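Sequence only, no structure available. Ideas?
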Amino acid sequence: MRFLTAALVAFLAVAAPAAAAPMDAALQTELLALQAAFTKAVAAGDFKKALTLLSAEQRKGLEKEIKTQKARKELSEMMKGTTPDSFDVEHTELSEDGTQARIEGLAKLILSPEALKRFPDPPPDGVAQSEMTYEFAKEKGTWKYVTRTFGPDPRTIAACDAAFGSLDDFDRDKDVGMGGMIRRVAFETDHILIVIRIVDEEQCLFLPPREEIEKNGFNAALLQPRAIIEANGSPHRSDKQKVWVEGLKVQK
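Reply:
I predicted one. Tokens follow.
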């Protein structure tokens, strides 16, 4: 099996990881309660209270959105229809300076018969699932709610084939670029596998084995789940979800 030359391996660039750490249980409970209070206030049409729970920037945005009774009613109804019945925390992050926080997890919403009719491909169990991220900011010593972001239904994500095969399977005359958060890493005997995800599709990225890239000055310890990477390399000849990496930058 042929791997990257020393010159190409040296092209692998590394940025210092950003500092972030999981939050403690007490803070997690406090922030989830803050998010729930905001959701409850909006659903009830109590925008006066909802505004007090938002970060300064988000408060300005919401004030512009709720100038009419119709807009307030529509937002309340939207909140009622999209508030999950359950939320399972999977990951938390607190910035090094303690002013930014995020909670990621899986949200589940039991769909009403009417809602199920609106789904082009309704879930067989009647439960909508979505990855969900809540973000918070600390302003003048007080935590404020920032936003929520919906992700894909994990059941719909297209997995990539982790089998490496041969280097000849990749078209070395073509170059593609991509980036994202590392979902998982495997240090195999003859290669390294990095799996990232672009929207709802995984990409399997293949590198030379650990000892090979470390011999050429790359710190393989930076290749860990949740690190953010930018990569370019040769696409697989028949599988669009596979790439042989020629250049890599670790951002986080």
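The CA atoms of residues 130 and 152 lie 5 Å apart.
Hope that gets you unstuck.
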